[in-house]
Amino acid sequence: MSTATKQHTLPIKGTSSDDREAWLEERSHGATATEVAKVINNRAADVRQIVIDKITGNWVDLTGNKFIDWGNEREPIIAGWVESKFGIVSNLHCYRSGDNPNYLATPDGFVDDAFMNERSVSEIKTSKNDLFPLDTARPESGHATLSVDVANDLLENSRSKFWASGYYDQMQWQMFVMGADRCLFVFEQHKDDWVDNKPTPLPLVAVWVERNNRRITKLIVAADSLIKRVEQARVEGLAPVSEIDSETADLIHGYLQGLADEKIGAALKKKNWDKLQARFGKVDDDAEAENDEAKITWRHSVTSNTELDADLLASGSAAQQARVTKSQQAVDRANERVVKAETALKRVRAGYDDAAERMFAVQTRFSTTTEIVGKGKLTVTAKKTK
Questions:
Q1: Confidence band (pLDDT; 50, 70, 90) for 239?
Q2: Do 71 and 254 contact (CB within 8 A), yes or no?
Q3: Which of 129, 275, 334, 341 has its CA 20 to 30 A from that of 32?
Q4: d(Cα 176, Cα 104) in Å, to the nearest integer?
């Protein structure tokens, strides 16, 4: 009989990633946190690739990718920091949900708090991007907490690197499978200045992420759909992709991914630019400042407006006043001529259009049509899985 922390069922321990073949085999029969975080977005290419991997067992070996290798090198070191600071012990085992053995997760670590009757898991990431999930500034002391209410809002409105990554859904699935109440998200950003395949790491950042049962409910639906598709593919085989060859399909996938990244970048740029404008809008004086990354300059705009001052004009000589009056009359007459010319031009254009239309009608009966094939127009439209 399974036990539980609070109301959550605890999972069943599976194989360790030390035995990679056995670990991959176990992960091929169910839905993992990484997979669920992808299929929730309904990208047909991602869903199909997951199904192919599970059916064929031909998992992509990313060894040799400098970002992956760096993450593999740093993760044990960061896990040691997490254990010493928070008491969360590192983990290499795949776990199955005590409620459904098809729900899988391999958290980077977990710990049970007997006093609080609470379980916590951990997730470790390294990245060249800032993965801080909140739109607020990082606290100078202590560690931030991502509450459920704030997360629900950011899921819809934020396009930061964290929310585009799917890491939030990964952690929610891990908490669900592991019967945990919260997850410690720890990320280490680096400067992306590779020397001998090693970048410069920045200080670690830790954020507590609360369990979001509403989001987990949606993830379960996505996981069940994936599991059903895998089971169907095991029996019926993989459905044809389409009439698009694999090379073209890869190019299309890359284009759509770039388009998505472009939208994320544009949203991130706009959000931070708007905040900068609002911040400096409160500064009364002109200012300049710089750091290692940028130099900023704030200048207030200066405009001028010149109007005829009746009192000042009255103080001028009679000759000066006469010149002002005559110049204004000249401008008014010139403006009248412009208006008349524009009106005449409209009449001429209307007459031209009418004559051209009559000419076309007369010539049509004596005309033949020849199709001229010009440069093709390519259209790519992203599709969602049903």
A1: low
A2: no
A3: 129
A4: 10
